[in-house]
Amino acid sequence: VSSSICSLQKTIDRYKTYTRENVNNKTVQQDIQQVKADALSLAGRLEALEKTKGKFLGENLEDCSIEELHNLEVKLQKSIHVIRGKKTQLMEQQIAKLKEKVMHM
Questions:
Q1: Which tens digit of pLDDT belongs to each residue from 54-86?
Q2: What letters, b where the CB count within 10 A reaches 16 and e where it falls short, cover 24-58?
Q3: Which domain covers residue 86, as residue numbers?
Q4: Is residue 68 located within the same domain as residue 56?
Q5: Shared-domain flag, residues 2 and 21
Q6: Could you give the CA distance from residue 49 to residue 5 in angstroms, rounded to a whole number?
Q7: What's the whole-model pTM score?
Q8: Within 13 Å, how many C-alpha atoms sit on residue 50's CB side?
Q9: Neighbours of 76 (CB within 10 A)
């Protein structure tokens, strides 16, 4: 009877080990699939960003519609406005510093 219990316990232990490994294996496989899906998604997003960057640099515009070109132009004009505002702000700060230097001479 004791050897039967021991044998039964070994069988239960083997089953638990197998089940645990199988669950871990499934989890690893699911993680791998998720990472692959994420990588594909990121690759697609990167490609889209590269195309957008190229368009902002004036590259590959021959496939763009008039509406796309207009939208691109509007975005560039907004960017230029922001850049000029920042440039003006920095120049005004420099002028103020120079005026302060002149007054302390």
A1: 999 999 999 999 999 999 999 999 999 999 999
A2: eeeeeeeeeeeeeeeeeeeeeeeeeeeeeeebeee
A3: 64-105
A4: no
A5: yes
A6: 65
A7: 0.57
A8: 6
A9: 13
* Same domain flag for 81 and 54: no
Interatomic CA distance for residues 49 and 87, integer angstroms: 26
Structure tokens of 66? 């008039």
What are the distances in angstroms from CA 18 to CA 12, 26, 43, 92, 102? 10, 12, 37, 73, 83
Q: Are 55 and 47 in contact (CB under 8 A)?
A: no
Type of residue at 68: E
User: What is the rounded distance in angstroms from the CA atom of residue 21 to the CA atom of residue 35?
Assistant: 21
In this predicted model, what pLDDT tens digit does every residue of 13-34 receive, in sequence order? 888 887 777 777 777 788 889 9
